[in-house]
Design brief:
The chain is built from 8 helices and 9 strands. By secondary structure, the protein is an alpha/beta fold. The termini are far apart.
C-alpha cells in the first residue's frame, strides 16, 4: 500500500509534535510532499530531521495559524517548491479548559482564534487553488469534545462544535468543485500534552490509570493510530466521504458510565 499519497502536496499545521508529527511521518511514508507549519521553530526543525525523506519533499514554515498573511505566504511558497497544496490537515489546536463563568475574555478569544479561526485561515488559503485545479481534500482534526461535553472544559467544546459545523458547511459548499471536507475526532491520545496532564497530579500513575479505565479496551490511542485514519481520509480510497466526522476513541464516547 506504499505510495497512496504520491500525488498529494499536503499542508499540516501543528506538525512539530504529537498527532501532527505522527501524521507527517505517515504521509511522507506514503509518498506525499509536505508543507509543515508550527509556531515552535527549533522543535519543528528537529522533528523534520527525523522524517524518513529527501528534504526536497518538505517545506517548513514557522508561523501561527492566526496570522492570515503568513499562512497565505506559506501556501504560495509551497506552490513554487513542492507544488500547489491539494490536501490540508488542520491539526493545530490548544486546550482551554475552565468553568464558564470563570472564563476570561482573553481565554475565550485565544480558544477561538486558534481552534476555529486558525483552521479557517488555512482553509481560505488553500481553497482557491483547489477549486482552480479541480479538487482537493481538507481534514479538520476535531475531538470527541465536538459532540460531547465534559464539565469544566469550557470554552474548548464550543470551538470544536463550531469546527465540526465548518467541516459540514465547507463540505457541502464545495462538493460540486471536487473538494471533500471531513473531520476526525480523536478521544484521549498518548501525546506529550496528555502525559503532562497526568504529571500535573500528585500521583501521575493513578491519574493515568483513571484515564485508561474510562476506555472499553483499557487503553488510549497512540498518535500513530490517529495518523493511520488521517492517511485514509485524505487518500483517494474514500472518494465519497464528505462533510462527515470519523470518531477514533476506542468506544469512549459510546460507553455510558455509571
Amino acid at each position: 500500500m506504499v505510495g497512496r499519497l504520491s500525488e498529494k502536496n499536503i499542508m499540516i499545521t501543528g506538525a512539530a509534535q504529537g498527532i501532527g508529527y505522527a501524521i507527517a511521518q505517515a504521509c511522507i511514508k506514503e509518498g506525499a510532499s509536505l508543507l509543515l507549519i508550527d509556531t515552535d521553530g527549533p522543535l519543528l526543525k528537529e522533528a523534520i530531521s527525523r522524517l524518513p525523506t529527501n528534504e526536497s519533499k518538505v517545506v517548513w514554515v514557522v508561523a501561527s495559524i492566526t496570522d492570515e498573511a503568513l499562512i497565505v505566504d506559506a501556501v504560495s511558497h509551497a506552490a513554487k517548491t513542492i507544488g500547489p497544496i491539494n490536501a490540508l490537515i488542520n491539526n493545530a489546536g490548544i486546550n482551554v479548559f475552565n468553568e464558564p463563568l470563570a472564563t476570561s475574555d482573553e481565554e475565550w478569544q485565544r480558544c477561538f482564534d486558534i481552534n476555529l479561526r486558525g483552521a479557517w485561515n488555512c482553509s481560505k488559503a488553500v481553497l482557491p487553488n483547489m477549486i482552480a485545479n479541480g479538487g482537493g481534500t481538507i481534514l479538520n482534526i476535531a475531538s470527541t469534545h465536538a459532540f460531547t461535553i465534559i464539565p469544566g472544559t469550557f470554552p474548548y467544546p464550543l470551538a470544536k462544535h463550531a469546527l465540526l459545523g465548518m467541516t459540514k458547511s465547507l463540505g457541502i459548499e464545495y462538493a460540486s468543485k471536487g473538494i471533500r471536507v471531513n473531520a476526525l475526532a480523536p478521544g484521549y491520545v498518548a501525546t506529550q500534552k496528555v502525559i503532562d496532564y497526568w504529571n500535573s497530579f500528585a500521583d501521575p500513575e493513578a491519574a493515568k490509570a483513571k484515564t485508561m479505565a474510562l476506555h472499553p479496551g483499557g487503553r488510549i490511542a497512540t498518535p500513530e493510530e490517529i495518523a493511520l485514519a488521517a492517511v485514509f481520509m485524505i487518500s483517494d480510497e474514500c472518494p465519497f466521504m464528505n462533510a462527515t466526522c470519523l470518531t477514533i476513541d476506542g468506544g469512549l464516547s459510546v460507553q455510558q458510565h455509571a
